[in-house]
Design goal:
Elements lengths: L5 E4 L4 E6 L10 E13 L5 E7 L1 E3 L2 E6 L9 E13 L2 E14 L3
Parallel strand pairs: 1-8
Antiparallel strand pairs: 2-6, 3-4, 3-7, 5-6, 7-8
Length: 107
């Protein structure tokens, strides 16, 4: 699943969110495991900006608020790693998705 990149400025507060669904038409519906949604943010060197932590969940929307205390503290390019755990027919299935966040400096 390709995720759109996000453009922010230093100091911005933003709600990062994705819709977590399995493919349309799957024979077995999937449910997101209540604590199975995680987010991690790394900088261009792979250093944790936000270590893996549980993200919020509302229906099929997985989300995390970021801001000047973490992601938008410094200009640069960051990678958000979303990890979603689904329960399908009693079995767990884990999917990972990457999303780019570009933070521009102030002019």
């Amino acid at each position: 699943m390709a995720l759109d990149s996000v453009d922010l400025r230093v100091g911005d507060e933003a709600l990062l969110a994705i819709i977590a669904k399995r493919g349309v038409g799957d024979a077995t519906p999937a449910a997101i495991t209540p604590t199975g949604q995680k987010i991690q943010v790394v900088d261009s060197d792979g250093t944790d900006v936000i270590p893996e932590t549980t993200a919020g969940l509302s229906g099929t929307t997985v989300y995390k608020m970021v801001g000047s205390a973490d992601v938008t503290a410094t200009a640069g390019t960051y990678t958000v790693i979303w990890t979603i755990e689904y329960t399908v027919g009693g079995n767990d299935e884990v999917k990972k998705f990457a999303q780019t966040v570009r933070v521009a400096g102030l002019y």
